[in-house]
Design a protein that fits this description.
With 349 residues, the chain is mainly alpha-helical. The protein has helices spanning 2-6, 16-34, 38-47, 59-82, 87-107, 117-127, 136-160, 175-198, 206-214, 220-246, 251-268, 273-288, 291-296, 298-323, 326-348. Helix 5 packs antiparallel against helix 8. The chain is globular and about 55 Å long.
Amino acid sequence: MIKQIFEFKKTDRKWHIPVLAGLCVGIPILGGYFTGTMAGGKLASMSALVILYVHTFSISGGMVTLMTCSFGMMLSFLVGAIFGFNPYIGALALGLFAMGVHLALFYLKMNRPPGNFFFIMIASVALCMPFDWQKIPSNIGYIGIGTVISCLLGLGYTLLVVKNNTDAPLHAKSKYVNLVESATFGFMVGFSLLIAHLLRLENPYWVPTSCAAVMQGASTQHIWQRGLQRVLGTLIGLGIAWMLLLMHPTPLMICVSIIMLQVIVEFLVVRNYAVAAIFITVLTIFLAESGSNLSVSPNGLIAARFIDILIGSIIGALGGWILYNEHVHWLATRQIRKTRIALGRKKGV
């Protein structure tokens, strides 16, 4: 187990994918800096991560996936922005939305990594922003700008690099099993946001985001391993972020750091999640936190983020145990089938 945590895996991922991700994130954030709209630039950079859903198998398939996920990003932010008026309704909405996204990706055959993670992240951020009806259209506009930039760069990338191969096959899975997984995933993500609100955490979106990240594992062992990797990587990453913030970096330095960190993260995340989590932590702090939080109180910020991520990782690990518990799956699947048969008999009568 310890060996697997620190092991660097071999991967066939091309070197230009991290560079492409860095460009997609970098253009909006630099645009926000030079136009004096850093908050909007950061939103656009988050949505530009949609580029990670392009898999190098076919040109047409890659672009359809990219445009579909771009719409999903805007929908995710819209859902979060609409239901952000009440923390408890927001937690319920996030849980139902996470369940719906998990199901939709399964039926659209788009459930390979990064899966539902970025949709949940965008929705969580929108839910936890100060509620303001008037700002929703402009914020969705920023989200749209980020996805358009990724679509244009993705089109150029697929035309230059990608060959028209057939898409990689996905593992078959029972629709009943997927329904149980989706319900479990949605419940744990919504529950994690509810816990964050009950604890009155300052930026509660870190908790469901961490929960969703840990639950991306492929098995119970993988999820526990991923949770431990995230906590260890986060602890080191917070230390690095704290030292960097004590230097009082300028907004331009933060923008450049975000671009460099994105490239490093995409290079490492498929090789070793624990090491990648170090840079993910610094990246997300620079990207998600406002300028005032970064400069005024780095000590309090770092301590708060560790607590948030630790809580989210623990809930995610618990959710992962439920997600891959065969007995729970068997009982839930059997109950769904019984209910469906009973409803069918009533309709027949």
